[in-house]
Amino acid sequence: MKKRLLVILSMALVLSLVVGCSSGTTTGGTASTGDTIKVGVNYELTGAVASYGVDLNDGLQMALEEINDAGGIFGKQLDIMTMDNKSSDTESANVSARLARDGAIALLGPATSGNTKAAIPAANENKIPLISASATADDITLDTQGTVRPYVFKTCFSDSFQGVMMAEFALNDLSFKNAAILADSTSDYAQGLTKAFTETFEASGGTILGTEAYQAKETDFRAVLTNIKALNPEVLFVPGYYEETGLIVKQARDLGIEAPILGADGYEAPKFSELAGEANDVYYSSHYSPNDTAESVVKFNQAFEAKNAKQPNAFNALGYDLGYFFKDALERAGEVDSEKLKLALEETDGFEGVTGLVSIDEFHNPVKSITINKVVNGEPEFLKKLDPK
Predict the structure, then answer these.
(1) Range of the structural domain that residue 345 is part of
(2) What value does the CA radius of gyration of the chain take, rounded to a whole number of Å?
(3) Domain-terminating residue out of 286, 310, 342
(4) Number of domains in the chain
(5) Strand 152-154 vs strand 36-43: parallel, antiparallel, or unpaired?
(6) In which band, very low, low, confident or very high, does the pLDDT at 386 lie, cut at 50, 70 and 90?
(7) At 188, is the pLDDT very low, low, confident or very high (cuts 50, 70, 90)?
């Protein structure tokens, strides 16, 4: 009996060693199990900003599915672990921790800057790269002391970059020297854009005639717009999100304010056009335009429309690029290892995506061009691309 027991225990020990050797566990707390590579996806699929999260996720899932259909990475299929953070920073932190615990090689998302910041601790603690395609706040990749967060990257340009480029657009392309600003006082996004626009505009000889404020969820902006109308600006800069800026554009035109209105990528939603009505002379910075005739854009548009029966938007394109950006870095890393993936991400130089060429700078931010869209009769049209100086 004892001899049989010893034989059974010996066989169990051998089996456990075999299983342990074939698990594919890698450094950095991540794992490749069998023929799969675990990828964590953390997006706002429900809740207040689900419009952004759903569109980003649609583009990302399309890219990851294409990668799997083409044979995956290193011959392994991607195990796509998608979770809904419900547009909540608390839930975003929980989702990030859960995905890390479940062995994700990387965390893709979230959409907004606030939810991305909440997801960062789990990435840093578990030494897993987190890559956001849309968190535009300047302090995503840098901590409060200005130190680079080692495991955090983004593929979208920052708020300050948009503010700088829109100020230069107002001065150089539209040839205006006098501007007014109407900004959301409750939004870090709007305040960051305002600061960058003001500093750049004034440093280049422009004058800010006045700055007015509004708060998120407001719907009547006529009082502050009346104040702005009295200033008679050549151009009006209105940084914010589409829920308010669409109404602001409509009410500004109804009040007889004819000055061109400038904004940023927060305008990028079909709801903006619905709220703004048949507006004209509105310009905003974005990451992509479906009207761009670049070959990569045309190819993406056709594939996305075939799959989803609708035209893609900027967030679809950003999500799509995120999938291939991850693939490019992991393949250059040479194996499923989070530390080597981190190094590969840092060395990214000239990745070609739908939203443009991307190189990662020393702050883990992308160096890339910006798209300027012009609203004509309520609908955005591609105007031009501006390259960073």
Answers:
(1) 30-157+294-369
(2) 24
(3) 286
(4) 2
(5) unpaired
(6) confident
(7) confident
